[in-house]
Amino acid sequence: MERESTARSEQTPTRAERKPALTEFVIVCLCAEWCGVCREYQDGFTKLACQFPGAGFHWLDIEEHADDLGDIDVDNFPTLLIKRRDLVLFYGTMLPTASHLRRTIEAFLEQSIEESQEYAFSNVERHGWQDDEDLRRLNAARLGDLCPQA
Fold this sequence. Notes:
Layout: H1 2-10, H2 15-18, E1 25-31, H3 36-51, E2 56-61, E3 79-84, E4 87-93, H4 98-109, H5 113-120, H6 124-131, H7 133-137, H8 140-146
Parallel strand pairs: 1-2
Antiparallel strand pairs: 1-3, 3-4
Helix pairs in contact: 3-4
């Protein structure tokens, strides 16, 4: 029995064993109070936050916090930012359905930190997100100061 447990401990961890803690993730919806799509999406976003306790879900009004956002460019709504630790995994518009965001989060939760790192630098656009100081500044602590969790 001891030999079996020793062999198991030397094996590569399963996906379930290496699944990241939800606390590593910050999900931000960059919105505007005047936007009807944002107002309709907010309830689903808030309900989704309850399905992923521990993750930081933030609803950030870009006009109310324009001075705090630097040069972050929001072309359309909803614009979402998904970070794992300091890695920006997603930044852009997304269909305004909570199920689409849920599937995206679930896919990121399947990644090891090494896979998330590889993904974050896997193309020119994602690599650029990592270098964007304004996106990097939007971390859990700063977001906690700017807006409450959803």
